[in-house]
């Protein structure tokens, strides 16, 4: 019979594996919705409290809150890069976007001003290598470490980066639903487009399904 563990999350009701990590689950509360929804409330003059993010060790169930956010600070989804969890924290009052690594303690990687992005819509961390991206309906942006921006089709969704190649999934209904894999370089030029999809596996492997 499996042992039942009590995990004291203090109100966070869902955990998911930190992709690519053998050690961690993570969970977050959504006091004001997601990152973009919290930004909209803040810009409209509403007071927002903060969100909470926890890491939980798979084997022991130990709960760690690597950053105790202050009022007006909100997290995006973390990633696992270079053997450690990496966090995205937006500080609305300070108008800063922070990328932080947790390796027993918190180490800042980069701090960016709000002016680096029009808004926080679809602002996300990705790995292989570590980068911060943003996507709207018709444009894709790498915010950091490069500054890259180019148009994409409305049906395209960014899946992952592998070195200098960017993998997108593009869907069609003509009339049946189908998907194509679109591979672009850092200028946005299409290197390949063919039937298939791209997927990051739970252990962190990058797969294309063709």
Task: Provide structural commentary.
It is built from one helix and 18 strands. It has a four-stranded antiparallel beta sheet, with no helix packed on it. It has a four-stranded antiparallel beta sheet with strand order 5-6-7-8, with no helix packed on it. It is mostly beta strands. The model has no long low-confidence stretch (mean pLDDT 92).
Strand count, sense and barrel status of the largest sheet are: 4 strands, antiparallel
Distance between the termini: 41 Å
Identify the quaternary structure here: single chain
Weakly predicted, low-confidence segments:
none
Keywords:
single chain; 210 residues; mainly beta; 4-stranded antiparallel beta sheet; 1 helix; 49% strand
